[in-house]
Amino acid sequence: MSARLAGLTSFELMGQAFMKSAMEIAHLNAPFGESYSVYVPIETLGESDEGDRRALEQSLERMLRDY
Question: How confident is the model at residue 66 (pLDDT cuts 50, 70, 90)?
Fold first, then answer.
């Protein structure tokens, strides 16, 4: 999998209770229109925002389909 996501530098799994508490403490609105049981923020390091985004989306689509 690391070869497929070579630009991935950070991956974090956050539960709904954590997100709710973090949003309350920081006075932030929910990031999406509805609530989810888990959130997965990721960070990538690359040279082209658009190209990196496209490559990451394709890799994630492929992994979700194959696994």
Answer: confident
